[in-house]
């Protein structure tokens, strides 16, 4: 009889322990959270999708912060959180995902960032879907046929970022991904030789610095030459005129 009661007591303790394990998250007031992510390549102004390497979900690092309460946790990947202890105490949170490094500027160097706020309820599963967008500024420099004709001796253009990185954009075909900060475009251009056979004059083009720069925005800077009433250098940003200079009177003062 004593042996029977001992076995019965052991069985009761075992069942109690299993019950505690099942209800543990409920007792703590916790809920399960699953994070999902998708990368979007659309940019502002043109509303077009940009051709670039798109990260997979595994490429995104994750940070979860409490909203209105102290909580912060970092994960190397989203999977590390989803496949681990993905229970959070009831309350409000913000999840941020990042893929890439904004400090690494260049061609096809896109950085994606996204965030979403969510609330956790006890004994409920919360699915959080985050759309990560391009965090860079994209820049492309173009010259018109009229510019090439006037400066028949050739030209050289350079883009310098706020971080000091320099890129040759003389014959650029793809956008450069840079940090969303100021950038400068400058260079030189050479006129065609005159009738006497003397070499064409080399002129220093004015440095162009945009007034403001934003993330997830594609900037097209275009150099053109208008000949109506005298040769004029024009610089446009996304088809909006931002600078107009009389080539004969002003640019020649900087001839090299």
3D architecture notes:
The protein has 256 residues and is mainly beta. The chain has 2 domains: 29-134, Sandwich (Immunoglobulin-like), CATH 2.60.40; 137-254, no CATH class. Helix content is 15%, strand content 44%. It has 3 helices and 17 strands. The protein has helices at 2-28, 78-82, 145-150; strands at residues 30-39, 61-67, 72-75, 87-89, 91-99, 106-107, 112-120, 125-134, 137-143, 154-161, 166-168, 176-178, 183-190, 202-208, 217-226, 232-237, 240-246. Strands 3-2-5-7-8-1-4 form a 7-stranded mixed β-sheet. It has a 6-stranded mixed β-sheet with strand order 6-12-9-15-16-17. Strands 11-10-13-14 form a 4-stranded antiparallel β-sheet, with no helix packed on it. The chain is rod-shaped. The model is unreliable at 1-24 (pLDDT under 50).
